[in-house]
Design brief:
Blueprint (H helix, E strand, L loop, with lengths): L8 E5 L9 E6 L4 E5 L10 E4 L3 E7 L1 H9 L5 H13 L7
Antiparallel strand pairs: 1-2, 1-5, 2-3, 3-4
Keywords: Ribonucleoprotein, Ribosomal protein
Protein name: Ribosomal protein L14E/L6E/L27E
InterPro entries: Rib_uL2_dom2 (IPR014722), Ribosomal_eL14_KOW (IPR041985), Translation_prot_SH3-like_sf (IPR008991)
Length: 96
């Protein structure tokens, strides 16, 4: 099954020390890996390479982040944090 994932999408690791935390995808490397940030521990300067099969992919997408990524504008870590919090408010399941 091919998973469709796009930059700006909300993801959550399935297991490990990162489980329970939320990230935004900032880049899709290939069909297997993405780069994800949370704006706190994993900042834009040092994104985390994540295997797609180890992620819960939520349908929420941060439109403002997508627009900035497409236009090449600078994105701050604070904007990433705000977008994640806003998307978590709309998530189907609570983060805790």
């Amino acid at each position: 099954m091919k998973v469709r994932i796009t930059p700006g999408q909300l993801v959550e690791p399935k297991a490990g020390r990162d489980s329970g935390s939320f990230y935004l995808v900032i880049d899709v490397i290939d069909g297997k890996y993405v780069l994800a940030v949370d704006g706190m521990v994993r900042r834009l300067e040092n994104p985390k390479k994540k295997n797609i099969k180890h992620l819960i992919i939520h349908p929420q997408i941060a439109g403002e982040i997508v627009d900035k990524l497409k236009s090449g504008q600078r994105i701050s870590n604070a904007e990433i944090r705000r977008a994640i919090l806003r998307l978590m408010g709309n998530a189907e399941e609570p983060p805790f």
